[in-house]
Write a structure and sequence with these properties.
- The protein is mainly α and 159 residues long.
- Among the domains are: 35 residues; 67 residues.
- A two-stranded antiparallel sheet has the order 1-2.
- It is elongated and about 90 Å long.
Length: 159
């Protein structure tokens, strides 16, 4: 039975990609031992890849509590330092410009909130003298809220 070949004797099927390999790729493939498994081509390692969890567990078992704590703090500080090296710091001009923008926004919001607080303070002072003013202001506020709610609800349901 010459047509029945074992898996080792069968020639691998040539795909269009395999036929386009360069001479360099073919030379590398001829030198590098490979394992074929369900269409994947990988280099043989002769050992399983250790899991990351197992490596971390082995590292945790080294030394006593003081040594592990010290090495943990050292690893943390080294990680912080490496992340700080990746930071793109703003230039002096950018820092000045952004500081001015923040200060302007701070002053504007302080003035706005101060005017709102002054308005409510005056309304409360006047309301203590005449309760009719407080009830009128509350009625206007509730009517405005109901109007605003109905106006926005009709727009959202129309979409």
């Amino acid at each position: 039975m010459s047509t029945d070949k074992t898996a080792d004797e069968q020639q691998p099927k040539r795909t269009p990609r395999a036929s386009r390999r360069t001479g360099r790729d073919q030379a590398i493939q001829a030198v590098t031992p490979v394992a074929r498994h369900e269409g994947a081509v990988t280099a043989k390692k002769d050992r399983p890849t250790p899991s990351r969890r197992k490596i971390e567990e082995e590292a945790e078992d080294e030394g006593n509590v003081v040594v592990r704590t010290g090495s943990g703090i050292l690893d943390y500080l080294q990680g912080v330092r490496s992340e700080l090296d990746k930071v793109t710091w703003p230039t002096r001009e950018d820092a000045r410009r952004l500081t001015i923008i923040v200060l302007i926004a701070l002053v504007a919001s302080a003035l706005l909130l101060g005017m709102i607080a002054l308005g409510f303070t005056e309304l409360f002072r006047i309301g203590l003298e005449s309760p009719l003013v407080i009830f009128g202001a509350m009625f206007i506020a509730v009517a405005a809220a109901v109007y605003w709610n109905r106006r926005n609800r009709s727009k959202s349901t129309a979409l």
